[in-house]
Amino acid sequence: MIDPAQVTNQDPDPLTGEFEPFRVDVAPARDSVRVSPVGELDIATVPKLEAEVVRLRESGFNRVVLDLRQVRFIDSTGLRLVLELDAAARADSHNLEVIRGSDVVHRIFEVTQVAERLNFVEPN
Fold first, then answer.
1. Please, is 45 exposed, middle or buried when counting C-beta atoms within 10 Å of its C-beta (0-12, 13-18, 19+)?
2. Cys bridge to 45: 22, 61, 76, 88, which one at CB 3.0-4.6 A?
3. Do the beta carbons of residue 98 and residue 121 sit within 8 Å?
4. CA–CA separation, 57 vs 79, rounded Å?
5. 3-state percent helix, strand, coil for the chain, nearest multiple of 5
6. Per-residue pLDDT tens for 89-120?
């Protein structure tokens, strides 16, 4: 049986044409926490993701895995947040790992030539 909580709707609602609302899924593990934004990471949603990562860091997680696989779109505000999270991780001696999103999402990292600065990892 499919658990409705695990289903993500990547297709627009046929009645409204809208995607599901933005959310941040969190999956803690023993030594890390996976943070998965779902939807569009833009000026309207960046504060939600930022607040969640800050909360997790303050609760003691030293390794944050930012999973971008369910992000449909990322704008310059989203890019800036990822770079700020990376800079904060380096300054505080904790780890930020990033799981690459779709080609459309990853393109912003390549075009701005910051992909090499970030710690992209394979999902496990």
1. buried
2. 22
3. yes
4. 20
5. 35, 25, 40
6. 999 999 999 999 999 999 999 999 999 999 99
